Here is the input.
Amino acid sequence: MEMERTILTQTTKVIFNKEQYNKDVPYYIVLITVITKKYDNDTISFYDINYDYEFNLANEDKKNEAYYRKIMHPYYIRGGDHFGNPQYGREILKNDVTEAMVKFLLMDDDDLSNHSGTNNPQKYRINIMLALSYFW
Here is the structure.
């Protein structure tokens, strides 16, 4: 029986608050975990990407919590939900494209801002997360 083995585990914590960088507004802290895996006797590696969400209502009234949980979520895009399984991650094949995307996904905001052009690093990371979800 072929066994899967972990080659590398990488994590980072990032904040999503609609690019406001203000702890007085609701926000998510997202722990991103990327585990690089490989099956024994196989040359193909893959990424197991997981997102763990912690929501902070900040100074908002508790009665508005459901609304803010929805609109502040990184997968709430352009006025509509992109919720569902993609928000929790899955395994994807490791190749040149996904390797570059994972590298940028795990960067802190300061480093990512050096590569995101005119895009805010939070928005750029959301786009990476969405793009990766299409590889699952």
The chain has a mean pLDDT of 86. The first helix runs from residue 65 to 71. The beta strands are 4-16, 27-39, 45-56, 76-77, 80-81, 91-93. DSSP finds four helices and six strands in the chain.
